[in-house]
Amino acid sequence: MKKIVTVSTLALLLAGCNPGDQQADDTTKTEQKSDETKQSNDETKKEDTAKDTNKEETNKTEETAKDDTSEEAKQEDNSSDAATQEDQESSDETKKEEEQKDDTPASENKTEDKKDESTDKPDSSSQDPEQEKPSKPEDETPDVDKSAEAKADLSLGNLVVVNKKYSLPIDYKPSDLVVPDVSFSYSGVLEQSYMRAPAAKQMEKMFAAAKKEGVTLNAVSGFRSGERQKVLYNNYVARDGKAAADQYSARPGHSEHQTGLTFDISAPSVGNGLTAALGDTKEGKWIANNAAKYGFIVRYDRGFQSRTGYTYEPWHIRYVGVDVATQIKNNGQTLEEYMKVGH
């Protein structure tokens, strides 16, 4: 054994190498390998650390994306909830409106129905008479014979009788119609603003006299064509029935307004209305006491229904001339009784 070691050492010496150096070199190589291994391990660790870092960042990114997606989903859900809430509120408001309609008092619905119905009726003026419906019809005199209708005698001039028995042609219209220079209850000029010239002149005098005595009168309705009377009469029949309408409204062709000798007048104290209440006012009493002085009579006076066929109308004055009007008033007569004709 000693021989082998000696030979090896000798060989090394011959080769110029020191056995110690060889050992050091081996040790160095071993250390280098160890360093390389260590460095490799460190690099591997670094790579693993980098991978872990990248993985964590990737996970964080994915989690952030998930959070963003979740947030967007929440926003969409909130939007959906808001839309649903708006739809629900809209539905609730619609239900409330429907419930309010259902809760509307029947009287209001009826009022609206009446307005709609009135638009379907022929045009009418607010100045047309709207008499109160009589509570109980009065008996008429035996000489009333509605079946024996006769033609009104236009040759009688101011004394022509037009009533339920005597009628005018439906298209009759006086040729001397004028607008009297008096105060009216409305502005502008309408068909009902006219009156025959002789009667209009006397009405102007009567209005002027009343004004001097502190009595304010307003003209409401004068001439009325047969066609216009037809519209009014049919409306009254539809409203109150024929039996009631016949007590205060004339059938077409049977109205004194068509003669041009009649005017409905009223006063501000009763809202310029054509109402029986006018007869109890200062203005109504003045008309009853003074109309005859100017040739007019209260055509359908109080308590005269059985003698004229119409209810009390303190607003309806008829021109017959001063002398005849004075005699009729003093005798407490009707025009029919003065002319000795039926009604």
> Strands of the biggest beta sheet: in what spatial order?
5-6-8-7
Count of separate DSSP helical elements: 10
> What is the alpha-carbon Rg in Å?
57 Å
Distance between the termini: 179 Å
Based on Cα principal axes, name the global outline: globular
List segments where confidence is low: pLDDT < 50 over at least 5 consecutive residues.
1-35, 58-62, 64-80, 94-127, 130-144
User: What kind of sheet is the major sheet?
Assistant: 4 strands, antiparallel
Indicate the percent of residues in helices: 40-55%
Strands, count: 8
What do the pLDDT scores average to? 75
- What is the helix/strand order? HHHEEEEHEHHEHEHEHH
Strand content: 5-15%
Output the structural class.
alpha+beta
